[in-house]
Amino acid sequence: MIKTPEFARHRRLRNSQAMRDLVRETHLHVDDFIYPMFVVDGENIKREVPSMPGVYQVSLDLLAEEVKELEQLDIKALILFGVPKEKDEQGTGAFVEDGIVQEATRLIKKEFPTMLVLADTCLCEYTSHGHCGVIHNHDVDNDASLKLLAKTAVSQAKAGADIIAPSNMMDGFVAVIRKALDEAGYTEIPIMSYAVKYASSFYGPFRDAADSTPQFGDRKTYQMDPANRLEAIREAKSDVAEGADFLIVKPALAYLDIVREVRNNFDVPIVAYNVSGEYAMVKAAAQNGWIDEQALVMEKLVSMKRAGADLIITYFAKAAARWLKNKE
Prior knowledge:
globular
């Protein structure tokens, strides 16, 4: 008689690369990636962000070259952040017709009509104080800010943006932007809401890239407390009810539990934002020879997919696309 084994032989499914590939549960594809781009006023500018090696601020005249590289790598979507020459208390540069993101969007859609352009809809890059809305009594006025954010979204859609991605974390921002878009005739433009955005220390390098550091205080009255989990569900639930078509969780790597919570509770596409601090840490360690950059990056991107993300906004999009192509 054959004796029943007293333990399971799990290693049978790991005994070769072919076997591991056969039973792999989670897969990365280049279609998963959205690449962030920083567009600046001026000419002939391609300026590396000191805290983000390999990430650049690019002027409009050099933008087509950058987007062409994405197209060659089969990356189908990018998200635009604007760095204007002038700022004011209202963040006027965010919603004027000739704003930097609006001009960049027109250029990209003319030269690369199939590239999906996401417009980050916020005021922080455009305000002289660096906050995401209108300041009243030394704090951000929620409802006054909503009016300007709605104007920004409509101006971005008019310029040709395929997706509006509001990141401001004002209460009611999805409802107000959805109403404004619909009334302006942009009923088919989806909203990718930064529904779950924590007041995180991982954003530091981004603020260098976008020149958006608050000039006083912080953003803790409108961004979420990193200690809270249930609040994420409340925020996401409100945004879905108000008309959000996608939900972003930001940051990603330190919040994979939140990505899974949001995935388990909502059936819209979930987006993980692999933020600037997460990027900078890896690049710094790689430059010191402490890690295998490719192996670590691919592992962490897989972890975001495994946690439940359908899409990933990441500064590693170009590198990951190349690595996937080489593997193929």
